[in-house]
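Quick question, first post here. What does this chain look like in 3D?
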Amino acid sequence: MFSIVKPFIAPLGFIILSGTAFVFIKMGLTYVSSMTFLELRYLFAFIILLLVAFIFKSNFPKTLKEIFHISVAGILSVGLFSIGCFNSIDYGLSPAFCSLIVSLQPIIVSFFAMKFLDEKVSRKAWFGLLLGFLGVALVLGLQKQITSNEFIGVLFALLGLLSMSFGSLYQKKYCANMNLITGGVIQTFVSAIIVLPLLFTEDIRFTFNSEFIIALSYMSIMASIGVMSLLYYMIRHGEVSKVSSLFYLLPVASALIGYLVLGKSLEFNVFIGILIVLVAMNLINKKELKVVKKTI
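> Answer (accepted):
Ran it through. Tokens below.
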């Protein structure tokens, strides 16, 4: 039984933890400025991972080349991605709209995976990728105009989209086999470093209370450590274009969690959008993508 369930554990965990992250970002930004929140999140995650690494005597990378590649992947997938998403919401963009922009990630990753990783994406899978984005748009049901302030938020969301897209590709190509614990130590450390100068660009505000502690704990442990470890694990064991398609399910997870936990209603467009996303995921994952290995 476990052998049947095992392949679904990592994707399901990734979807649930990621799908709820935007809720905790919004909660945290109510009490602390965006870059301060990010800096505290990375420092907290760094300390936890460092302690775990020493307790379990995990092996750190032995060469500067390995450290460099892990750092670059971390700056893109962890640092710049979160800087983009946090600032987009801080500038007034709704978590739903930010989620929609980030949902373009599977299309971008699949295109460049063909160029740089020699992954072959079938026409059926491409149709599924486009269909999935349509489904996400229906789930989110966006109908409002963008204000000038929110336009800046859109630009930050695009930064998050591109950073995560190319970060995933870089991770697969150069450091797919990194140790998840010590690699996490390096990536949270370099992410904290690049956020540090950005603290001087904002009016720092901070209110210490229980909701802030909950938001910080979730984003540090469940997002920075849990989500990224699951993502890298799946990238290591599968095609990055296929793994990226899971981003289509994040808004679906958010909608379902809102319905089951918060008592929100599921509008007709949300229900249809969920069905479309599920059909799209079936098209994308129906056949194994063939990978042509280069000979050096």
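The chain has 13 helices and no strands.
Residues 14-285 form one domain.
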